[in-house]
Design a protein that fits this description.
Length: 367
Amino acid sequence: MKKLTTLAALVGALLLTNCSKDKPSTGNQSTTPATLTDRVLTENLTLPWEILWGPDNQLWITERSGKISRIDPATGRATALLTISEVVSRGEGGLLGMVLHPDFATTPEVFVAYNYLNGNNYLKKVVKYTFRNNALSNPVTLINNIPANNTHNGTRLAISPDRKLYITSGDAADASRAQDKNSLAGKIQRINLDGTIPGDNSIAGSTLWSFGHRNPQGLVFVGDRLYSSEHGNATDDEVNIIEKGRNFGWPNVEGYCNTANEQTFCGANNVAQPIQAWTPTIAPSGIDYYNNNAIPQWKNSLLLAVLKDSELLQLQLNAAGTGVEKVNAFLKGKYGRMRDVAISPEGKVYIITSNGNNDKVIEVSGK
């Protein structure tokens, strides 16, 4: 029995090195020389979704029930700011993405995205709050009526260097929506910070920036380049570089354009291929970019929180940032499902778990 278990583990490890059906991965699963220290900073959270390092040197988090809190990274103490009563949490839905205004000291605005009900319709909206006197107030709806479901909501937010808000939306469990440019589902949207539509969007008068997405749960800018992580179906979880107007293939393409039907569709529809994909799937969620000397082995890397495989992945980028050179796994199975990751200016990494019971904030630093 022991030999069979060992063989199964070896086969599983070999499968993880393969990427997207029969195409070799652009990155190799390997061990790393990085030595880390990890500890539990905060406990007793319930399904947190977002974690951010704020300009106030606090960690900001959302929980799917509708709660927004700040956590002191020195003590781990959580202080609740607001519970949004309109939030309706169903399945994987609820209060999800959050981002702070880049000029927070002078423009203390907080952008959140959550699911709600309009009659019997389960939908998503993005709302801007103002932060004053340690409280959030003055909600302003920027965009609403985005299709939602118990699954495939996407919903990560990011603000570009030119002050545009990007919103990931899953296909809301209806794959046909992803290729429908008139649907808000299965898209990455782009709006101004006041909710208006930029004049240079992919389609005039539309919030659409890219389409053909299944369930993108990670989003981060590195300079003006936008990376996203996305859940595949039975195969081909992905990391993509998001480009204006590009089709990312779902449901006609999964991962790379490497079957006859996919190649035909890709050629006819200007499909962008991922820079990394995984088969078997790993369930990738939040990502952030690490470029700090505190953990030098992680410089110029995307850090990816993984749910199904319960680990933190380091995706070492090439010098141009256009490809993945290697993939290293950390903390596998130690804390359970990992939902999102944030990085402090001094190079500490903070991870939130998504186990549904006594969820935690984990602090990781170089040793």
